[in-house]
Amino acid sequence: MTAQTPQVTLNNGVQMPILGFGVYQIPPEQTEQTVTDALAAGYRHIDTAAAYANEDAVGRAIAASGIPRDELFVTTKLWIQANGDNTKRAFDASLQRLGLDYVDLYLIHQPLGDYYSEWRAMQELNRQGVARAIGVSNFYPDRLVDLIANNEITPAVNQVETHPFFQRTADQELMREHGVQIESWGGFAEGKNDLFTHSTLSEIGAAHGKSVAQVVLRWLTQRGVIAIPKSVRPERMAENIDIFDFQLTDAEMAHIAALDTGASLFFDHRDPAMVTWLNGRRDN
Fold first, then answer.
1. Shortest CA distance to 11 belongs to which of 225, 177, 155, 137?
2. Where are the beta strands (DSSP E) in the chain?
3. Catalytic one among 43, 52, 106, 115?
4. pLDDT classification of 3: cutoffs 50, 70, 90
5. Which domains, ranges and CATH numbers included, belong to the chain?
6. What pTM was estimated for this model as a whole?
7. CB-based contacts of 171: which residues, under 8 Å, 6+ apart?
8. Which of 68, 97, 230, 266 is the S-S candidate for 55 at Cβ 3.0 to 4.6 Å?
9. How many other C-beta atoms lie within 10 A of the C-beta of residue 95?
10. Strand, coil or helix: 150
C-alpha cells in the first residue's frame, strides 16, 4: 500500500485504505486511462461496480500497471438480482471482467430486491476467500440492523451518501456500534450547494493552504469515513490524495458540522418512485 494512505481495519481484520479512487460515471472508453493515471498518482484502492459498465476497463488498467495484486484493494458491487444463484453468476462475471482471482470488497449495491438471498450467497463467497470482505451500500439503519440480526456475517462496510451537507453522524455511530465501517459516496456532493466555492470550506482551506476538495476529504477521513473521490484529471487526482499532511482543528470540524442539512441531495431509497426506478434498471 502507498505509505501516505492510512488504513482502516474492517471487522474481519482486512485492511482497507481510507482513501480510494471511484470510477462512477466515468465512461468505459475513458476508464482505463483514468485508472492508469490514478494508480500512477499513488491510489491503491479502486472502487467500481457492475452497474458502472466499466469493470473490464478497470481490470485492464490494473493488469497493465504491474502493481502486485496484494498491494491493491479492489471493490465492486452487485446490482439488483433475483436470487442467490444469480448472485454467484454476477460475481463470477465481475471477476472475469476485472481479470482478477478475488476482490477485496464486494457490496450489495442497493437495499432492494431479494437481498437476503444475495447476502447468503455473498457469505459463501467470503468463506471461499474470493471476496475478502463483504458489505452493503445505501442501507439505512433499520435495514442494516435487520440484515445483521438475521445473518451470520455482519457487513464490513456500508457505503452511503456522505458529504458536508448530509453528514450521517448518527448513522455512523450506529454503524460503529455494530462493527460496520462507513464509506462515503458523493463526498463532494457533485458540487451541489456551491460546495467548491462555499465560504466556510474556502476559509478553512485558505488557513491550511489547501483546496476545498482537500478540506472535504480531510474532514471525511478525520471522522474515520472512507472516501473515494473521482476525477479524470491527473492534477486533481494528485491533489485529492495529498491530504494527510495537515489536520483540521476542533473548531474547523465544528464549523463544517454546522453545514449539515440532515437530508440527501440526490435521492431517498425509501421513496417509492425511486425504488420503482432502481428496480427497473439492469446491470451490464
1. 155
2. 7-9, 15-17, 21-22, 45-47, 73-78, 103-108, 131-137, 157-161, 181-185
3. 52
4. very low
5. 7-280 (3.20.20.100)
6. 0.95
7. 140, 141, 160, 182
8. 97
9. 20
10. coil
